[in-house]
Amino acid sequence: MTIEKIRELISQMTLEEKASLCSGADFWHTKAVERLGIPAVMVSDGPHGLRKQADEGDHLGINDSIKAVCFPAGCGTAASFNRELIQEMGETLGNECQAEGVSVILGPAVNIKRSPLCGRNFEYYSEDPYVATEMAGALIKGVQSKNVGTSIKHFLANNQETRRMSSSSEVDERTLREIYLAAFEGAVTKQKPWTVMCSYNKINGVYAAENETYLTKVLRNEWGFDGYVMSDWGAVNARVRDLAAGLDLEMPSSAGINDRLIVEAVKNKTIKESIVDRACERILDKVYRYKENRDTKAVFDRENDHEKARKIAQETIVLLKNENILPLDEKDNIVFIGKYAKEPRYQGGGSSHINSFKITSACDAVADMPNVTFAQGFFDYKDELDEKLIEEAVAAAKKAKAAVIFAGLPDAFESEGFDRSHMRMPDCQNELIKRVAIVQPNTVVVLHNGSPVEMPWVNDVKGIVEAYLSGQAVGGACVDILFGKVNPSAKLPETFPLKLEDNPSYLFYIGEKDKVEYREGVFVGYRYYDKKKMDVLFPFGYGLSYTTFTYSNLTISKKNITDKETVKVTVDVINAGSMAGKEVVQLYVSDLESTVIRPVKELREFAKVQPGETKTVVFELGKRAFAYWNTRIHDWHVETGDFRIMIGKSSRDIVCTKDIRVESTVKLPFVYTLDSTIGDIMEDPKAKQYINELMKGSVLFSARSEEDNSAASKAISQEMMMAMMKFMPIRGMISFGNGSVSMEDLLKIVDELNKQE
């Protein structure tokens, strides 16, 4: 339906009908207006599976949803670094939604992994905003290609579960732009999600639901978002203010309470009726886009989608350590140890929990291999050491050629609704790994977790496989990796620190009552660890393969560009090993001459390739690759200077570099005052001429011979005088000018400086 027809339809609605469209009919449906034939549509939780509930719906998963397919969670899909793969996952989800009559799937979730403690990290993609926004964009593109909407969430700065409905994220402008907004920006501007879901929390004291700065000025006016904004379930705090700020749809139903507030506000002229019309127009545009493109022939083929989930999971599993132990030989006697070998933890708890129609465990996947045995090792419903289980596991490990321990975090350790209190795995699991490794040198640990864990046994085992929470087919995918049927190709989308205390947000995470200060600023994840040159357990972008890739012939199309130009970067990648495999090529940029505080390097591009003999990877970099957010001009800005383009296998493994010079075409505004330092003024060639003569009269610039051995020369060196002059406000010339300058002179100079600006 065209916008013109939608507007005509809205003009026929009563105020009460229009207000009613601005809230849900129940937990999962929008309202219908039967008098005018306006249909209701269904939305459903996601983003890594379809959690469609029946009539007795609820938000947190207390009531069952339909049998569906659980794909890898965000923590795993980000590790794939494969846009095409995640787009394919999105297409599958979109088809499922069409088959089940769902108009919008609630996802993807792109909130930054500020701390390993966030209970919902398993849903989120990365500590890096570029990875987050690219993975989100790929999923959105896939889902919406099936004429089903997405709802990118949770907008904005929702990075913890503790007090998430009342806390205020206190974040400075530059950090918001470079880290937290950037995670949404690319996906919104390029892929145009149908909806955006606002978060519960406040941003700098203003609830997200009523934050006009972000819901309207940034999201719509700057980024061109043309869908509707919906609330997280129960995030509405002041319905009329929220509506005016840009929150179109309240979910779930308020039983008509907030609808009546909207009607009253229009009648008493607190809000214009045109604002209500605007919200209705945005909602109905998507309602009819879905309804008019309904695919009644779509089929939810669960078996087929299960196999797709396995294929995707294969690329989400990261090989962290391999001391000539993997891949395993199918002919060897091997013992699988740990509850998760039989009952894998493959998803997180809360609103994204999928009622999986089928689960393939690692034990299921080796059912036809009689030489693979099983030992329980531990139970995960409580963190208690079961000596009998450990002894059985140790005995089985002694008899085997190799032991594979399936461990990780139980549901009680990470879930929506609460944050982790530490970064440790259960003590019973750590003890199990320790005891098995003593008797079995060929020990491999497979981890099922949604966020980093400490590994006190890291040096005691030969292999470590990070399986993340990789969906209902994770067992089959793990076995494919363990036995070399598939070459591991995933990379860590987050840093694994040695210990929680190393994390940059450690001192401030969770905050004090309802105030959470993001004091680490832009230094999130690897940006912090690399700047501090800190040892980490495993760095961002890290992941091993069963083959070896070499890089060569890095070229850039231009050695000098302006901030209005682009540069093409190419590099050759060769598979130098004997096994076919995929590699994630990572491009970082470093500002070599920055006058602002910046990370050492930042990921600006990546590509996943499967080279035969040679694969040439091509990247194109524009202004944003070199820019930071300048709070003086409230825009992205590139400083004139030299930059280094780095190609790496991880943030800590840079294999080739090229330098480029970028010239800024933007003249930064500068208002000179009596407090402006001489050093700052001297940086501007035009301003410099106004004070050269002024400085000659200063006692700080008095000539002193090299033979001067007086006590004064020993106390006050030339270097000291130069530093004092550089950082001295020009008003200091009154004190050090030997009477040669007056206040009137200085005011005149300041006036001239500002005129020439």
Automatic annotation (TrEMBL):
Keywords annotated in UniProt: Hydrolase
Stretches of the chain forming a coiled coil according to its record: none
Gene Ontology BP annotations: carbohydrate metabolic process
Signal peptide segment: none
One MF term in the entry's GO annotations: beta-glucosidase activity
Fibronectin type III-like domain segment(s): 583-651
UniProt cross-references to Pfam families, sorted A to Z: Fn3-like, Glyco_hydro_3, Glyco_hydro_3_C
Family to which the UniProt record says this protein belongs: Belongs to the glycosyl hydrolase 3 family.
Name under which the protein is recorded: Glycosyl hydrolase
Protein's organism: Anaerocolumna sedimenticola
